[in-house]
Design a protein that fits this description.
The protein is of the alpha+beta class. The chain has helices spanning 4-19, 40-52, 69-83, 93-99, 148-152, 160-175, 253-265, 292-302, 356-359, 404-407, 454-458, 509-513, and strands at 103-104, 112-114, 121-123, 138-143, 181-184, 193-198, 217-221, 235-238, 243-244, 251-252, 322-326, 329-334, 337-341, 354-355, 369-372, 379-383, 386-391, 394-395, 402-403, 418-422, 427-432, 435-440, 452-453, 468-471, 477-481, 484-490, 496-499, 507-508.
Length: 527
Amino acid sequence: MTTMADYFHLAVIFIIIFCQLDALPIDVEGKPTLVSEPSTRDILEGLTFLKKYHYLNVESNKDGDLPSTDEITSALQTMQRYAGVDQTGKFDPPTMEMMKKPRCGVADVVVRVQDEDSSRVRRYNVAGARSYRWFVNRITYKIDNYPSQSQTNLNSPLTHNQVDAIIEDAFKVWSDVAPLEFIKADANDPVDIHLLFGSRSHTTVYLDPVFDGEGGTLAHAFTPNSGWGDTNGDVHFDDDEVFTHQIYSGANLFYVATHEIGHALGLDHSDNRNALMWPYERGYNPNFQLPADDIAGIQAIYGPRPTDKPLPPAYCNITFNAVAVIYQKLYVFSDTLLWQFTLDGDLLTNPDGEDQRIHFKSLPRRIQSVYERWHDGRIIFLKGERFYAYDGTIAATPKGGLKIKEYLSSDLPKSITAAIHNNTRGTTDFLRGKKVWRLDEIYGGVKKGFPKRFQPDAFPGLPNRPTGAFADKNGDIIVLKGNVYYRYTRTSEELYQLLSNNNSTPQLFAQDYLNCADGITSGITIT
């Protein structure tokens, strides 16, 4: 809890920063930055964040000195490493943006706290060490109450039954990869893990962190055998949040609960942006699978399940929202992540995927289609009624993109779900619903005779609403629908002729193009 003394210390540090601006780095061109001319609000909020998540101790050190600017810079760099932004040591805009992002309330840095009534030193939410774990494999849990804000949310009210099912699914994520069994306790059964929803100062437990209202801290948890007594292993959710299920707004209860249960089992935060145990909330992901980083962490504590076979990579069993060949590499996109492969299907990136903004800065999430434009080498992303052009990793269009109908052609539809670029003709075919539009990229405008329906001529045999398309290394046109693909070749009339593959269509995309022959657990899905 932040006390008046804490605010006094923060105010003193604020004055120190302004008095020692020369000790802090500035822009390479000598221009003022957030660090050289920070607002009062930015500094106070930033310092409060660094204290709250144990990056910075605002108390005096052993010599009676407050933290120096060097110590503040070091604390900022550590925070930036966890957040996945450039480690500038400055209160710059990307850092302040991450500080305002909803996240877990568990600290990112190890500290020790003193019991109020004893000399026993215990660790605050230190997870991952072998002594901070459950020493039984059958663990009981109880949902003490239910989220009040989520029940009154008109967009997505959560019923008690839904919350029960979500929490059960969250526990199952971990029991699927570790030798653990989670049992919902009956009324008179002993309980290992209590899950509760509360606001602000929500328990009488000494040093239980106070929640901060909607936004900011979403939840926190207590690691087992870590000195919290009956609170060991418990999970607390901020009841001022609007928790939701299977929609993109609000705080996704499944994701938050699964993360917090990771703490309740003995895992600490990871600075791997792809990990579930990364401190910041990502929201709803319809294709969620537990990343390898988290699997390795939980199995380091409890070991693997005795009969487990190695799990296939996540990309083998998800549906992608966009696919393209870019600079002679195959890119596949899902939500905010991307994977990169050679044209022979060899993985070039992290098997859990990488944040697409590492490769394409400021790209919006859940893009719908993408292609590389031959005549200028730009990469074109499309989502809804807008498109985003990139020169390599740098955006060539304004933030927010440009409108398709204003800058490409007024005859094109919005929400284009697949794009096929023809290098030799300088045209791009855009697919949506059951029609295809052909754009002349050189002279502009949609070609005469378009749009055409898939049936019978443009794409014979292709179902409505395809989800992606690209030209493979053989020049065949691959059109995706769900987790399967249809193979086409261009005809003399520049339309498409369906080709068979092993005398059968459709085929599993991940099996044939991502080398997932032994890792696919889902069958053919066409929806």
